[in-house]
Specification:
Blueprint (H helix, E strand, L loop, with lengths): L3 H4 L7 E7 L5 E8 L8 E5 L1 H13 L3 E6 L3 E3 L4 E4 L7 E5 L2 E3 L8 E6 L4 E4 L2 E3 L3 H8 L9 E6 L2 E6 L2 E3 L6 E4 L2 E6 L2 E3 L10 E4 L2 E11 L5 E3 L4 E10 L5 E6 L8 E7 L2 E3 L5 E6 L6 E15 L3 E7 L13 E14 L3 E6 L6 E13 L3 E2 L1 E5 L1 E10 L5
Parallel strand pairs: 2-4, 3-5, 4-7, 5-8, 6-9, 7-10, 8-11, 9-12, 10-13, 11-14, 12-15, 13-16, 14-17, 15-18, 16-19, 17-19, 18-20, 19-21, 20-22, 21-23, 21-24, 22-25, 23-26, 24-26, 25-27, 26-28, 27-29, 28-30, 29-32, 30-33
Antiparallel strand pairs: 1-2, 30-31
Length: about 400
């Protein structure tokens, strides 16, 4: 059943709704801006970028809580839509019932971005970046645009993303960079398994991020965790196709901040190239990874279910200097399912900074469903508890 508030949004430029009352007898008001009333066209052809930016400017300047409403239909945002703070208002909601379309080719780094905002929520809607033309251009080896992130949050706090669908992003679908207190739930990410660099959700330089009850099916990492991330909670995520959930790659720079206090639980991996992965380049770095819990994961035909790779180098010209990233106190508990390769558990750590404090608890992984899987360890130290299959190589 549709929300009766939004059924009223047909033609007014501005509608002030009085909703509820406080115990003191005063009323709380919400200001609603309908992007169609501000000039947007739901035909999928007319550029509606200005209408969205005008709605944001009005909501940002409002002293009342504000809703920017996007009704049903297709809205083309031909240019980058950048929503900037600092706003007078710290309670702005995007309620999206329609589809936002990107042009097939796009020259900016970010398609829809929020910068220096506080208290912004996005409910519902679909972001369709129409990335297939760019992917084909890259496959054919032409001189192609770089590609844009579909939804980018930077230097922001108290953010909610709920019920959003992101399809066919040109690059990353959702990036959270330099943010605090971000709640992502009920998100659906979709792109073909061979689409390049289409990470589902990337988190870096952020704290207090929660990602729950979401489905991520794409061509790169379902969720990637970059340097400077702390207090990250991931739960009940369905991943595949894709490259799994990855902390890293790290050690891209020497003064890189570390990753700590990460929990990943209740995740299902289906046909992914990796499951639970930590990866770092083999070069000096001040970075680290510590206090990570991987718990209650299910693997179905995953190529590398459990992997730490401190010699990460997907291309030529590998540094081979020994990773400076210190990896410690990583726990794998109740990890079950099938590996598509015989080595289901691989810890390839650095002789310069061996992995320490690795714990395996109640792990049961088989190769192709009914064959014995193997473990491989290099410069890794840890302990095993309960039943651990394949047997630990510590």
């Amino acid at each position: 059943m549709a929300n009766p508030i939004f059924n009223l949004l047909v033609s007014p430029l501005l509608l002030v709704l009085m909703i509820g009352s406080t115990t003191s007898g005063s009323s709380a008001s919400v200001v609603v801006y309908n992007v169609v009333s501000m000039g947007a066209r739901p035909d999928g052809r007319t550029d509606s970028t200005k209408a969205f930016l005008d709605a944001w400017e009005a909501a940002c300047a409002s002293v009342r809580s504000a809703v920017i409403y996007v009704p049903r239909g297709q809205f083309l945002l031909r240019n980058a839509a950048t929503f900037k703070g600092q706003c007078r208002n710290s309670d702005i909601t995007f309620r999206i019932d329609g589809v936002l379309l990107s042009p097939p080719y796009f020259s900016d780094d970010h398609w829809i971005s929020f910068q220096y905002v506080k208290g912004v929520s996005i409910y519902g809607g679909t972001l369709d970046a129409q990335g297939s033309a760019l992917w084909a251009c890259r496959t054919e080896g032409h001189n192609c645009p770089k590609g844009a992130t579909s939804l980018f949050f930077s230097n922001s706090q108290d953010i909610v993303i709920n019920g959003l669908e992101s399809v066919n992003s040109k690059m990353f679908h959702i990036v959270i960079d330099g943010c605090k207190n971000v709640d992502v739930r009920g998100v659906l990410v979709k792109a073909p398994g061979d689409s390049p660099n289409t990470d589902g959700i990337h988190v870096q330089q952020s704290t207090g991020v929660t990602i729950v009850r979401s489905g991520i099916h794409t061509g790169d990492d379902c969720i990637s965790v970059g340097p400077g991330t702390s207090n990250l909670w991931i739960e009940q995520v369905d991943c595949g196709p894709g490259h799994g959930i990855s902390i890293g790659s790290l050690a891209k720079s020497y003064d890189e901040p570390g990753v700590q206090n990460v929990t990943v639980k209740g995740v299902a991996f289906r046909g992914t190239t990796n499951g639970l992965r930590i990866k770092a380049w083999g070069r000096p770095s001040k970075g680290f990874v510590r206090n990570v819990l991987f718990q209650h994961a299910y693997m179905s035909n995953v190529e590398n279910p459990i992997v730490i790779d401190q010699n990460y180098c997907p291309h030529d010209h590998c540094p081979h200097e020994g990773s400076g990233v210190a990896i410690s106190h990583v726990t794998y508990e109740d990890i079950r399912g099938t590996s598509a390769t015989q080595v289901a558990v691989k810890f390839d750590c650095s002789p310069r900074n061996p992995c320490t404090g690795i714990r395996l608890m109640d792990v049961k992984l088989s190769y192709n469903g009914n064959h014995a899987a193997l473990s491989s360890c290099s410069h890794a130290d840890g302990t095993a508890y309960g039943f651990v299959i394949p047997a630990s190589c510590f």
